[in-house]
């Protein structure tokens, strides 16, 4: 069992609607770890306590599985992000190389009309 910090208390209140009264409490709440919840349930020897301990253990297992899945998803997203950044740079280079080719060619110089008196033939 341990006591939450102020920022952890605010996060719990924001995520759990049924704990809105805790928001205005000046006290920081105590919470159980997975092992602490099992130990507390083993002391209480009633059918309700046994059912609740099974519920708590399943909740902790489910939470651990979700955290593991989230970690794997975040790792995969980081890999995809790195790949996209590499592709982004390659596409930027290709675009910069294609830009001059996409511009229309300059107009050819116009021929002068009339007599060329300098004799250079142009």
Automatic annotation (TrEMBL):
<feature type="region of interest" description="Disordered">
    <location>
        <begin position="101"/>
        <end position="122"/>
    </location>
</feature>
<protein>
    <recommendedName>
        <fullName>KilA-N DNA-binding domain-containing protein</fullName>
    </recommendedName>
</protein>
<feature type="compositionally biased region" description="Basic and acidic residues">
    <location>
        <begin position="108"/>
        <end position="122"/>
    </location>
</feature>
């Amino acid at each position: 069992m341990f006591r939450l910090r102020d920022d952890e208390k605010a996060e719990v209140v924001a995520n759990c609607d049924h704990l809105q009264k805790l928001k205005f409490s000046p006290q920081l709440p105590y919470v159980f770890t997975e092992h602490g919840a099992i130990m507390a349930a083993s002391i209480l020897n009633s059918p309700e306590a046994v059912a609740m301990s099974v519920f708590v253990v399943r909740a902790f297992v489910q939470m651990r599985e979700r955290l593991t899945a989230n970690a794997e998803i975040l790792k995969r997203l980081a890999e995809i992000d790195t790949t996209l950044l590499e592709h982004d740079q390659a596409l930027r280079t290709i675009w910069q190389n294609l830009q001059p080719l996409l511009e229309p060619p300059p107009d050819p110089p116009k021929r002068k009309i009339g007599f060329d008196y300098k004799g250079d033939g142009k």
